[in-house]
C-alpha cells in the first residue's frame, strides 16, 4: 500500500520534467508529455522556461510559429493547448466523442441556442463543419471575428425562417455584439478543433489568429488507431496513480467517453491503494513510483495552469482546503511557488514599461537563503520575458 504523498510528488515531478531542467533538444518531449495549456496567453512559454535551459522566448515562438513543429489548438477541456504537431491525433482526434457520449463540458451550454433555433446538435454541427472549411484558404484575426465570419457562412445555408432566428440577439450575454448563431458557432469550434478544422496561427499583438490545420502546416493530420490509447497513457504517466473520474475531469468529457477511452488500455494498468483510495497507473511506471525519492526541496515558480498543477487529487500538492482555494480559482489563477513538489506559496506578476513587478505570498516558513533563491528565480523569469525585475516582495 502506497500512502506517501511525498513519493507521489517525486514521481510526478519527474514525469512532468520538473526535477531538473533539460537541454532545448528535449522541448518536444516536454510539450508532448501531457500538453501545455496556453491560458492565459504565454502560459506554455512559462511552462517550458521551468523545464528547459538555454532557450529564449524568441526561439520558443519560432518553433511554434515558424518551424511549426509545435502546434496550438483547442484541446482537452476546450482550452488552448500547445503540443507537438506530430501528435495532433493524440491531442485532437482522440478527443472526438462518439454517439451517446455528449455533452462535452465545452458544448453543454449550447442547449439554449438549439432550443431557440428549433434545430438539433447534429444539424447545426453539420453546417458548422462545412462553414469552417473557409479556413482552408483563409486566416481570421480574433475569436469574435471568427464567430461572426463562420456564423455568416452558416446563415446563407439556412431557410428564411431560421435565418431570422440565427441573427437574433444572443441569450448568453453581450447581445449587442453576439447573435444566437454566433454563440452556436462559438460552442462548436471546440469539436471542430478536434477534427483539425481550426487551429491557432501566429498571434498578432493581443489578438489570436485562426486557420485550419492543413492551411497552417501544409500537412494532412495523422489519425492513428493508437491515438486514443496514447492519450490515456500520457495522462496516467503524468498524473498516476489516478482514477477514471480524474481522467474525465482532466479531459472535460462525459463520463461515458472517459470510461470508453480508459478501457482501451486497462490491461496495461495496475491497481493500487493510494492514500485510502483505489487508483490505477501504468504497470510499466509502478516500479518507478515505488522507488521515487525527492532529492532536496527544489524551488520553482510555476506559472498559472502549469500541467503539474492540473492534477485532480490536489491534496498531493496542498493539503489545506482553504489554501487550495487560493491556488485553484474560477478565474485568474496565480502562479505557484513549489518547494519539493508541494505548493508552498503563490506569486503574481505585473509588467509595466519594460519592468516586472512580482509579489509572493508564502504558505510556510522559508529561510533567508530560500527567499534569496526565490528572488533570483524572479529575476531569471524577468530576463526570459525580456523584462527588468523592478520589485519583488515576499509576504509570509
Q: What key attributes describe this structure?
A:
alpha+beta; 17 helices; 13 strands
Instruction: Give the topology string: H per helix, E per strand.
Output: HHEHHEEHHHEHHHEEHHHHEEHEHEEEHE
Would you tell me the overall average pLDDT?
95
Helix content: 40-55%
Q: Give the total of beta strands.
A: 13
Major sheet description: 5 strands, mixed
Strand order of the largest sheet: 9-10-11-12-13
Strand content: 15-25%
Task: Report the total helices.
Answer: 17
Low-confidence regions? none
- Taken from the alpha-carbon principal axes, the silhouette is globular
Radius of gyration: 22 Å
Structural class of the helix and strand makeup? alpha+beta
Terminal Cα span: 36 Å
Write the layout of secondary structure elements.
Layout: H1 5-15, H2 27-34, E1 36-37, H3 43-49, H4 57-67, E2 70-74, E3 80-84, H5 88-91, H6 111-117, H7 121-131, E4 140-141, H8 143-156, H9 160-166, H10 180-194, E5 199-200, E6 209-211, H11 213-217, H12 227-239, H13 244-251, H14 255-263, E7 269-274, E8 277-282, H15 283-290, E9 299-302, H16 321-327, E10 335-339, E11 342-352, E12 355-362, H17 368-384, E13 388-395
Parallel strand pairs: 12-13
Antiparallel strand pairs: 1-3, 2-3, 4-6, 5-6, 7-8, 9-10, 10-11, 11-12
Helix pairs in contact: 6-10, 7-8, 7-10, 8-10, 13-14
Keywords: DNA-binding
GO molecular function: DNA binding
InterPro entries: AlkZ-like
Amino acid at each position: 500500500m502506497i500512502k506517501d504523498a511525498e513519493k507521489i510528488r517525486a514521481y510526478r515531478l519527474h514525469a512532468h520534467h520538473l526535477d531538473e531542467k533539460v537541454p532545448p533538444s528535449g522541448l518536444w518531449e516536454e510539450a508532448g508529455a501531457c500538453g501545455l495549456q496556453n491560458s492565459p496567453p504565454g502560459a506554455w512559454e512559462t511552462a517550458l522556461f521551468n523545464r528547459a535551459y538555454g532557450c529564449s522566448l524568441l526561439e520558443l515562438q519560432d518553433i511554434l510559429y515558424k518551424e511549426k513543429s509545435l502546434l496550438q489548438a483547442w484541446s482537452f477541456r476546450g482550452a488552448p493547448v500547445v503540443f507537438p504537431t506530430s501528435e495532433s491525433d493524440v491531442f485532437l482526434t482522440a478527443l472526438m466523442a462518439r454517439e451517446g457520449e455528449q455533452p462535452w463540458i465545452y458544448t453543454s451550454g449550447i442547449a439554449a441556442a438549439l432550443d431557440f433555433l428549433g434545430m438539433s446538435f447534429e444539424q447545426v454541427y453539420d453546417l458548422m463543419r462545412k462553414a469552417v472549411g473557409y479556413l482552408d484558404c483563409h486566416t481570421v484575426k480574433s475569436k469574435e471575428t471568427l464567430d461572426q465570419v463562420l456564423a455568416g457562412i452558416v446563415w446563407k445555408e439556412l431557410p428564411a425562417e431560421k435565418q431570422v432566428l440565427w441573427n437574433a440577439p444572443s441569450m448568453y450575454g453581450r447581445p449587442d455584439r453576439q447573435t444566437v448563431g454566433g454563440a452556436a458557432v462559438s460552442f462548436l469550434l471546440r469539436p471542430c478543433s478536434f477534427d483539425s478544422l481550426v487551429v491557432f496561427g501566429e498571434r498578432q499583438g493581443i489578438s489570436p489568429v485562426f486557420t485550419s490545420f492543413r492551411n497552417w502546416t501544409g500537412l494532412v493530420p495523422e489519425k492513428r488507431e493508437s491515438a486514443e490509447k496514447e492519450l490515456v497513457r500520457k495522462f496516467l504517466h503524468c498524473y498516476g496513480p489516478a482514477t477514471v473520474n480524474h481522467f474525465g475531469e482532466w479531459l472535460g468529457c462525459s463520463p461515458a467517453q472517459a470510461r470508453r477511452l480508459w478501457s482501451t488500455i486497462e490491461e496495461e494498468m495496475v491497481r493500487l491503494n493510494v492514500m485510502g483510495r483505489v487508483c490505477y497507473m501504468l504497470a510499466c511506471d509502478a516500479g518507478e513510483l515505488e522507488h521515487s525519492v525527492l532529492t532536496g526541496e527544489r524551488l520553482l515558480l510555476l506559472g498559472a495552469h502549469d500541467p503539474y498543477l492540473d492534477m485532480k487529487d490536489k491534496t498531493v500538492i496542498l493539503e489545506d482546503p482553504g489554501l487550495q482555494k487560493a491556488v485553484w480559482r474560477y478565474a485568474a489563477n496565480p502562479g505557484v511557488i513549489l518547494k519539493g513538489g508541494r505548493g508552498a506559496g503563490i506569486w503574481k506578476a505585473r509588467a509595466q514599461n519594460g519592468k516586472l513587478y512580482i509579489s509572493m505570498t508564502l504558505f510556510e516558513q522559508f529561510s533567508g537563503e530560500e527567499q534569496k533563491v526565490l528572488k533570483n528565480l524572479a529575476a531569471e523569469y524577468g530576463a526570459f520575458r525580456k523584462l527588468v525585475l523592478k520589485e519583488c516582495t515576499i509576504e509570509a
